[in-house]
Amino acid sequence: MPQPTRVLLWTDSTAAYVEAIKAAGLADRVVVDTLSRKEKPSAEQMAGAEALMAFGAPPGLLPRMQKLRWIQAMTAGVEGWLGLPDLPANLPLTCARGTHEESMPENIIGALLYAAKPFGVAVENQKQSKWVHTVAQPLTGKTLGILGIGAIGRHVARIAAVLGLRVIGTRRRPEPIEHVDEVLPPERTPEVLARSDFVLLLLPATPETDNFVNAARLGMMKPEAWLLNFGRGHTINDEDLVQAVKNQKIAGAILDVFRQEPLPAGHPFWTTPGIIVLPHIGGPHPRRDRFVAKLFAENLGRFLDGKPLKEMVDRKAGY
Question: Which residue numbers are catalytic?
């Protein structure tokens, strides 16, 4: 009988993952070690672990894990893993892509409604007991442009279509997508920017997308358009966005992700009228551990059986 596979769960709440392993019928095939994020793996854990699930790892650790044959990242973004100078070249890395498909689309639609409807203005007027009649802008007939249509973008498009929005967007490998009227290659981004009333950024963090939304691309947008970023903070040139909003080149921006989190108290995003700062609420879900645990357990079964893993990271693409 083969020896059980050593699995290291390096996260603070491990109950959902242990339960998922049991529910998948894998408990007898593995030995599970658990470790809180503030702790460091012991010499024994590093020497024995064949599979690792974690948010990240410090430089110098992975080369010491000689038996490690698979990493499951707990987030969809993997720029931290790919930025490690000593990430073994042929070590399989999978991500938690798709585990935000319930929470993030709802929160993005909430941001769209906030931009189009005068709820925020009404709240501020209420503080002063002011009755100010305003007319809400309809979403019906407007165009939502999504840069980086993936799993989240598909769900957003489905809901947006119900609200009467026309959806267009870009994708590295264009293909027809239900509820999306046009899927264009990235080189046609200027066309998407020019036609959209709302521009949603769902781009990954890669060298190609760093500062992607700069003064030139902001200048391609409609003056009445809103920018929404629920992808990665590095995709926006912060100063260019502040100037674009101040100079009314665009109507405003709703931002959920930033280059540095928490956003520093002195950052101009806090005080620029027309820029709404959200404290990275897009993806978190009260039961998110269950979603990630389900993916992890399925991948663990595939790993033990020598089958292809789900949500494999394309290192060349950066996600």
Answer: 232, 261, 280
